[in-house]
Fold:
Amino acid sequence: MQLWFYEAYGDELLAGFKARDVLFRGQSDFQRIDVIETYGAGRMLLLDGLVMVSTSDEFIYHELIAHVPSLHHPKPENVLVVGGGDGGTVRELLKHPDIKQISLCEIDGLVVEVCEKYFPELASGLRDPRVRLEIGDGVAFVRESVSASFDLVIVDSTDPSGPGEALFTGDFYKNVARLLRPGGLMVCQSDSPWQDTAVLKRIQRNVRAGFPFSHPYIASIPSYPHGLWSWTLGALHPLDLCAPDVKRLAALQQNYPLRYLNEDVLRGLFSLPNCFRQRMSV
Amino acid sequence: MQLWFYEAYGDELLAGFKARDVLFRGQSDFQRIDVIETYGAGRMLLLDGLVMVSTSDEFIYHELIAHVPSLHHPKPENVLVVGGGDGGTVRELLKHPDIKQISLCEIDGLVVEVCEKYFPELASGLRDPRVRLEIGDGVAFVRESVSASFDLVIVDSTDPSGPGEALFTGDFYKNVARLLRPGGLMVCQSDSPWQDTAVLKRIQRNVRAGFPFSHPYIASIPSYPHGLWSWTLGALHPLDLCAPDVKRLAALQQNYPLRYLNEDVLRGLFSLPNCFRQRMSV
Structure:
């Protein structure tokens, strides 16, 4: 038997992954959850049939969402992750000795359970003493949190359709902005730069509703739609996007060799090709 | 009827493109040639079932293979393109007023005919008075050409299996090096950076056999395998890879707005993420 998993990117494109086995199939209160073992992309977590994590390339997504804001903030101590129940973002954040506490609010407890069982190399950090894990609605958590309580807020959500939709509105980003201490930063995943420009521009406009200074950045993720992904950094103050803290990066690399980011890549990360500047302009 | 074209990337991954129509199906002395009209990626040229050109993203491939060497050379006047019968590389080279003559040696005359009919926006430049079009074997052309006769040699080949194989050997690159005038540059397409590392390292080693100074660079091409492609620049002298001629780029942009490259992207193009440094090391 040949087993293939297909993900459709709209009605006109798809990607196929030959699968060795289906390890888990379940339905939570929020979404369908599947875990498959593929030949070409490692083990995959699928939410509502969309690839969220592939063990072959998850390092890229998680390095980019965690270290970019951490190294653009002078001293991040208190971090909030909204979503991110697989644990990959927390695993990367824990590599920063400055970070004293990470609060993670994941809406779907079954995602955490499944990842602890099937993706221990991602989820193990969720039980670290520096991590405060909360199963609940990220929108409510953000709305009810005390103002000026976080240095970084990382929105590690699913796509803007489905349960993640509320994490892409202007009102949500305004509430996130309220949570930041002076000098604080927000980062969110912001879809494939090859996605429809209407979707991309709406995300960028909504981020801008909360953050007067915001800029997308991109990286290759072969198991994600169109092989390219974007994140957007938001701030309440002007930022020098070419000046990450490379001393702290060097110290980090000593203890935890990164597989994607290095000084040169980090300095040039916000230099986008013309087509993406246009597609992701506000 | 739903019509889909699938390209397999090895045995374990594939991409699917919903097709509106099949415009041409043919067999030359060298390869199978198909032209299809897709919904999501525009019109596609397929050689032996592999996507060579998609009108939705061909601008990226052709800007990267033509302008990077042109802007790293102080004054390219005489250029050789090996392969590239679709005409896209020539179209971009013709944007440089310094370039006085372009010789193009394409092995397959049917590729040129098909592209002139179905991809006029790529092929039109092939009839420009500055272009000398030769249908013949690129390996023989390079072997028999006069030493020190070109400022740039651009190897715009198919993949290293099939008719393009001979364009990836160390002997071929040594012969290419012989053709270069002092200060000359070579560039070749060098496969997806997510390709098997054995293939990638072999390409890099073979380039290095002809060129003591060589370095790959990468860009997103969603219709190509894994959504990411690489090219490799080769020189007989040390190069400052962060110092393209941005004045000539600015002049170019005035007349022909580029859709991918800009000054910042060009300066950072050779800064590769750690995983690709490793995968494409010699």
